[in-house]
Amino acid sequence: MVEINSGYLDLVPNYLFKDIADKVKALKSSFPKAEIISLGIGDVTQPLPKVCILAMQNAAAEMGKIETMRGYGPDFGYPFLIQKIQKNDYQDVGINIQEDEIFVSDGSKCDISNIQEIFAKNIKVGITNPVYPVYRDSNIMAGREISFLPCREENNFVPEIPEEKLDVIYLCSPNNPTGTVFTKDELSKWVEYAKQNKSVIIFDSAYKEYITNPELPKSIYEISGAKEVAIESRSFSKTAGFTGLRCGYMVVPKGLNGYTENGEKISLNKMWARRMATKFNGVSYVTQRAAEAIFSLEGKKQVSEIITYYMNNAKILKQALEKMGYTVFGGENAPYLWLKVKNGSSQEFFSKLLNQAFLVCTPGSGFGSEGEGYIRFTAFATRENTMKAIERLEKVKL
Ligand SMILES: *Cc1c(COP(=O)(O)O)cnc(C)c1O
After folding, report:
1. Alpha helices (H) along the chain
2. Distance CA 233, CA 208 (A)
3. In terms of Cα–Cα distance, which of 86, 100, 119 is closest to 257?
4. Which residues 6+ apart lie within 8 Å of 31 measured at CB?
5. How far apart are the first and last CA of the chain?
6. How far is the CA of 239 from the centre of ligand 1 (A)?
């Protein structure tokens, strides 16, 4: 008899998403010819930038020759990629991050769910509601209790600074699912809170490229003092369509400390380096060359065209929904629209939209109890499907 990790039993099975999949499947079998359009899932639809394809072809050719083949790469990423990240994503915007503070990985979901391993089981974790479920579930698996921070319309979907002392707080900006973004002032309050409480913020900025307002922070390190309290996770998934290729990075500053039971300071950067060296063998050479390519002049241009394409979808969809009389949040600095349901529950809205218009959205309640009363639309569809979705929305009674 092997005793299992009982944390897994505490996970709340997400019946909602299974229910959505079942309902879509049922509709497909009743109307096999129906064209179902999805504005539901958070995955990209546009192909990879051409620079990435070329870089991968070249890298693949190198792997085929004895002079240039590569075996295991460095645990934390190839210097050619780390240097581009350091320069373009930080130095060029006035943030000083060192190369050995950057850890290249196979994506943000893995980083964000793995990072909790370096903290004690009995720490207090703060997670927003609604939320990207990975923060919550990875901590439940580890057997931790969670304090939820409600994000509501009256606070612009930004969590209020809590009275209690939280040790690790997960913040996501631009936010999935609400599409809202922290201002510098709002983020500064969290950095201040973390300093006072010796807490650590895990800042997920997977959607940073979607920020169009230059006043809004793309990195938590734009806030002074954040290097002493924050880890930043980023991904090429939504930036450059790498959801199927897998590459991202995490910044763990050297000035960031955790503490032993006796109050002795321990560098989190060293702990994370040890974790990566022991449990990870790096992202493939071919993939890292593809990631490097997006930092070239041509790469930046191609990436920006893709982002503009999605953001135009967001704009068109948001304007149309507002014209129809809906209250819609997000969609201006994020690829998600958070629509307030006029009557009934999120799930009822979802069902009506699916059955009357063959259109898929995501009920807000799937992201946490505070998501009830909202649904999420994504801008990651094709333009054609976005336009069709609008036509259908205009016709249905919801
Ligand atoms: C899509 C997404 C990510 C990126 O995950 P990858 O594992 O890098 O593909 C991270 N955080 C949020 C909130 C996301 O929606």
Report:
1. 15-30, 50-63, 79-84, 108-114, 133-141, 184-197, 237-240, 268-279, 285-293, 297-323, 346-357, 383-395
2. 11
3. 119
4. 358
5. 53
6. 10
Contact of 322 with 362, CB cutoff 8 Å? no
Q: How far apart are CA 209 and CA 307, in angstroms?
A: 7
**Do 181 and 173 form a contact (C-beta atoms < 8 A)?**
yes
Question: Does the beta carbon of 132 sit less than 6 angstroms from any atom of ligand 1?
Answer: yes
Tell me, in angstroms, the distance from the centre of ligand 1 to residue 209's CA: 13
Ligand 1 centre distance from Cα of residue 143 (Å): 23
Please give the C-alpha separations between residue 131 and each of 8, 150, 151, 210, 243, in angstroms, as whole numbers.
Answer: 19, 10, 9, 19, 20
Q: Which residues, listed in sequence order, are joined to residue 336 by a DSSP beta bridge?
A: 378
What's the whole-model pTM score?
A: 0.97
Residues 110-164: tens digit of each pLDDT: 999 999 999 999 999 999 999 999 999 999 999 999 999 999 999 999 999 999 9
The CB of 238 under 6 Å from ligand 1? The reply is yes
Spatial distance between the Cα atoms of 217 and 61, rounded to a whole number of angstroms: 40
Residue with the larger pLDDT of the pair 41 and 26 = 26
Ligand 1 proximity of 206 Cβ (cutoff 6 Å):
yes
- 379 contacts 314 by C-beta, under 8 angstroms: yes
